[in-house]
Every structure is written in structure tokens, then in C-alpha cells.
Amino acid sequence: MAPIRRGRVAVIGAGPAGMATALSVHQAGHDVVLLERYPQARAAGNILNLWPPPIKALGLMGVDIDDIGSPCYTEFRNLAGHRRVAVNLPDDIVREYGGGFVGLLRPALYERLLDALPPGVLQVNRRVDSFDQDETGVRLHLADGDVHECDVLIGADGIDSMVRRTLWGATPKREHNLHIFGGFVLDSDIETAQQGRCILTHSRTTQGAWTSIRHKGRDGFQWWVLTAHDASQEFTADLHATATALGSEFPSPLPELIAATDPADVQRWQLRDRKPLKQWSKGRVTMAGDAVHPTSPYAAYGAGMATEDGYFIGRHLAGVDLRDHAAVRRALHAYETPRKPHTARQSQQAFILGKVFHHAPRPLQVVRDLILDHTPLLQKVVGEASPGEILKQLTEIDAAEQAFAAAGGRKTAE
Ligand SMILES: Cc1cc2nc3c(=O)[nH]c(=O)nc-3n(C[C@H](O)[C@H](O)[C@H](O)COP(=O)(O)OP(=O)(O)OC[C@H]3O[C@@H](n4cnc5c(N)ncnc54)[C@H](O)[C@@H]3O)c2cc1C
Q: For residue 37, how far is its CA from the centre of ligand 1 (angstroms)?
């Protein structure tokens, strides 16, 4: 059979979704450009944890995953230290990844993704203002006046996605009325902070959490505190002082970790998302990451799902003649069909957990905590459902990889 012509793919946005998409599409043998509006692909934020599926996908896309982070065993606890949830992954996964939830710093992930990108793929200072498409192709209109033509467009342009707005119209952001403060310390000698642990503790109103990290061969810890905050109210207080006050009711090592953090390394975010879309792709255009499923940090899976999205897009476009409109539509449909329930479950669960833990009226807080302390409810919702989702993603990656390898990996002509 004659090899299939190389297609032309454009990806908008050099976050985790866009960089992963570019890597996987390149591996599929198509020509790809990654258009970023800023002068560089820059990590907005510091703290990050990744579950095994994105780590596996990164490795398969040629990203160096050696010593990428600190694998952690995860528990939810109450303020008295009582364990409400243990996230138990099967032994073989723990053996392969060293643990479940891998703690790292976001800039390190960006560096590794950028190192894996082939030269010339990333184009910076290239803001895309609009696009139009027909059955023969897509035309991108850039802020610098350039028009870029391609066969397929992937919008990986984040929560305020122009691509999403153009395809499906404007939908309001959903304010969670929560804010989170996060920071990190490297080379800490706080005795109660153990490597290989991620401990998420809830008081009546606040979550205080810490996890071990590895950063460029150094051990450390990241932490966060999260509580209700009316999104319409401007926040002007000192970040480190506010985090210190919020963290003070939590057991060691959280207060010590906050105290040891350089105030310059404390950041704050307001939590928001958008409701899941029923359909992602239209014609020759689809989306990945926060553009299509912005997810509250409560899930700690937004960057992970963005990475998985990118991996699957490339695998689905392998061997497809991108001039063939019907074939492109079939491939994009096959990409989004399993991604929709997975990503919607994560983003909706994150929204609901935020409500339950931080917006319950005061009388209900006591009842809630009795239920969480004395029934297996949270273990079932978080402790069992999360490993189930992780196993499912790993299985789907294995299946995608087998199909990719069986078809000879790169299936397009040079
Ligand atoms: C406090 C906090 C903690 C988090 N913790 C975790 C965690 O532990 N684990 C996890 O998996 N996730 C976590 N997340 C979520 C994660 O950060 C996001 O889901 C992830 O960054 C989304 O990646 P993305 O590539 O889709 O979008 P983004 O990272 O937003 O990237 C979008 C890119 O598109 C570019 N862009 C936008 N518009 C245009 C345009 N018109 N033209 C050209 N370029 C454009 C932007 O400049 C940007 O570079 C956390 C988030 C927060 C706020």
C-alpha cells in the first residue's frame, strides 16, 4: 500500500496540552507547528503532581521521564490525623512508577517537553486571532498579519480558548468561589515531612496539603492551602502571611513548610472552570487540555489530562490522509469519544468536592464530617474511583500504542 501523504497540523498554545499534541502528531509523521502568543512557552505556576498515565504518555512521546518527580502514596485525613481515604494503586503500578502521585515543579515539566520538541516546531510571538475552515482546510489569522494554512487545527489555548469560543460560542466561566495558595521548599530538613507522601487534610473550612517533590535531582516539598473566597472580591493581602494563617490549624509539617518557603515562591489562584461540552470537534478542528475541559486544581489532573489529550490526538491522526475530510472527522470523533466521559468526571468531581468541603453551611459541616469520618463514602468516591480511572487510562494508552506499533508507528511518507 502506498504511504499516506504527510498532513499539515497547527496547534495553538504551548502549554502541556499543546506541547504534548505537537510531540504526538510529529511522531505520527505529520508536519506540525505549535503557535504560542508569548515570547516563550512559560509555566504559569509552580506546584504540580502527575498521575502515572500522563507520565507514561510523556515517556512514549520521547520526553525524558527519568527522575521526573517524587512518587507519592496519597491519603486524605481529618484535622485529628484520622485517615479518610487511602489511594491504593495496584502493586505493579507502584513498582513501575515508584508510587501513585508524582510531585514535581511545573517549570521542570515544561523544560522536558521543550527539550523533546523537534527544532522549528515551536513558533513564539505568534498569537492567533481567528480562523475559518471549509472541507478542504483551515486558515489561521495571526496578530502579525500572517495567514497560516493547515489541514487540521488543534486548539490547546487554555481556559479562555479562542478556538472553543469560535466553534461553540461563548460560555460563562464557573466561579468556584475558592482560592488556593501554593509554594515549595527544596532541601528541607523538617523531620515530620516524609518523602513519598502526599497528605491532604481538611478542617471544617479549609484544605491544607503537602507532598514530596523532586526537582532537578533535589528533594523537596510542595504545599497548598485552599479555602472559600468570593471571586468578585479583589484579594490584596500578603500571600505568605495569608497562607501562614490558613495553615496554622493543620498538623506538622504543613506550618513548618509554609514558614520555610521563600515568600517569592508563594502563589495564589482563584478556582474556576467551565461546564463540560457535549461535543469537542467540528469539521477539521478539535481541542485539548483546559481549552476544552478546564479543571479545578482540586482534581490535580488538569495538566495530566491535557498531556493525555495530546498523546491520543497524535495516535488517532497516525495513518490518516488529512486531505480526506471524512477521514479527519472520523479520527477526531474517535479521539474525543473516550476523552469526554473521563475528563468530565474529573472536572465535575473536582467542582463537587470543592462545594462539599468549603461551601457547606455551618450546621451541615458537622454532619458531613461525621459521615466522612465514619463511613467509607469518601474512600469509595476518591480512594477507589481515582485508581479505577488511572488503570483505565493506562489500559487505553497500551491499546493506542499497540495500534500505533502494529501500523508501523510513523505511517506517513517522508
Ligand atoms: C494551583 C494549581 C494547581 C494545579 N495543580 C495541578 C496538578 O497537580 N496536576 C495537574 O495535572 N494539573 C494541575 N493544575 C491544572 C493545570 O495547571 C492546567 O490544567 C494545565 O496547565 C492546562 O494546560 P493547557 O496546556 O491546556 O493550558 P495552558 O497551560 O493554559 O496553556 C495554554 C497556552 O496557550 C497560549 N495561548 C492562548 N491563547 C493563544 C492564542 N490566541 N494564540 C497563541 N497562543 C495562545 C497561552 O499563552 C498558553 O501558553 C493546577 C492548576 C492550578 C491553578
A: 14
| 50-68: burial string, b at 16+ Cβ within 10 Å, e else | bbbbbbbbbebbbbebeeb
Ligand 1 midpoint to CA 375 (Å): 36
Q: Is the CB of 182 under 6 A from ligand 1?
A: yes
How much is the pLDDT for 243? 98
DSSP-based three-state secondary structure for 179: strand
Low-confidence ranges of the chain (pLDDT < 70): 1-3, 410-414
**φ, ψ dihedrals at 383, nearest 5°:** -70, -30
The cell for 240 is 505568605
For the CA of 38, the closest atom of ligand 1 is 47
Q: Rounded to an integer, what distance in angstroms lies between the CA atom of residue 5 and that of residue 37?
A: 29
Cell reading at 71: 512518587
Alpha-carbon distances, residue 299 vs 5, 92, 190, 229 (angstroms) = 40, 24, 27, 18
d(CA 32, CA 26): 6
Is the CB of 295 inside a 6 Å radius of any atom of ligand 1? yes
pLDDT, position 414: 47
Burial of 363 (0-12, 13-18, 19+ CB in 10 A): exposed
Instruction: Look at residue 2 in the predicted model and tell me its pLDDT.
Output: 56
Domain boundaries, given as residue ranges, for the chain: 8-44+119-174+277-406
Domain 8-44+119-174+277-406 grouped into CATH 1.20.1250.20: no
Q: Ligand 1 centroid to 117 CA: how many Å?
A: 18
Cα–Cα distance, 152 to 18 (Å, whole number): 14
The answer to whether 137 touches 7, Cβ cutoff 8 Å, is no
CB of 137 within 6 A of ligand 1: the answer is: no
Residues 6+ apart with CB under 8 A from 380: none
